[in-house]
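Q: My labmate handed me this sequence with no annotations at all. I'd like to see what the chain might look like in three dimensions before we decide whether it's worth expressing. Could you predict it?
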Amino acid sequence: MLSVFRLCALAVAWLPLVFAGACAAQDASPLTLDAAVQLATTQSRLVDARAAQVRSARDMAVAAGRLPDPMLKAGVNNLPVDGPDRLSLTRDFMTMRSLGVSQELTRADKRRTRSARYEREAEAADAARSLAIANVQRDTALAWLDRHYLGRMRELLLRQRDEARLAVDAAEAAYRGSRGSQADVFAARSAAAQIDDRIAQADQQLLAATTMLARWIGPQAQRALADAPALDRVRLAPTDLDGSLAHHPDIAVMLKQEELARAEADIAHAERQPDWTVELMFNQRGPGYSNMVSVNLSIPLPWDRVNRQDREESARLASVEQMRAEREDATRAHVAEARAMLQEWQAGRERLALHETRLLPLAVERVAAATTAYRGGSGSLAAVIDARRFELDARIDRLKLEMETARLWARLEYLTPVQHTGAQP
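A: Here is what I predict for the chain of 425 residues:
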């Protein structure tokens, strides 16, 4: 029995270490694009701000549907200020101490329209929250892709630098053996120096990309990145852009703002009918006089409704029409922009296929031919260096094209928020 207790105690003591090791292993794993996007979504304070705005509007919707608070009134009426009864509260029969309460009886339809107005504001804030999520996810994906492809460019330059240093050693050895010229040595050293300069530039760009990614996911941006996801399809349906973009967060925000303007127009229409105010007042007089009760009813007189209430309602309706026109124009703009991005993304994929099937194989064959000629004594080292520079530029151009195509993919993929289910960043 004692050994069992010892084993249990030992297991409990090891649990924190095992958990820490699991966390360390998780942090050491490559960071995928999906995990980075999810992490940025959960950490975004802008998304939290929009959620708080939704809660605020919904609380205001409840408050706006209630009657105003009653008003307590207290005072002294008809207090003498001179004569024998000066400042006396009890000797003059007209002096009264008053205590009363008044209540504004706001019409039920007004309270409903005011509550509905804040409900529309909550829906607009919720749509703005979805827009904020989409923007955070898109910008995070762009930052992740920038760092990924800039890192691949740097790795390519590092491999080319190793080959350039071997070329420098070969040129120097050939010059010492009287089989090469000093110009070849200088050409090889110049090519190596150029690659070093491009590596320094790549380091600077990679640092900037990592900093931008850290803006969204914090210290996790320092982790190694996983492979890029498949970029051959997007969620947007090219054949039904109008229907697909009807749920675009930006359009949804404008639609909810239009509904909010309509709710304010409804409030202006309801305000054309005045509210009543009822007041009950108890008046206490001196001991020799009777106490009194007063009941008052206040009703506003809309004597200039044409130039006040009607004008306000007309202004609110004009705002609704303005919102509708702006939303329809924004929808057309989004459809045109999405179609242009789709066309550019498809053209980029076709260009990538051309690079893979023709341009890169030709560059590799050129390097092989120049190297064979140089080893056989019929070619120059300058031709080999030029061929290697051409191949490096072709591979860099191919990576830049893939990076541009991936950025277009990210803009299309995250036009609307992506829902993550069960993914662990």
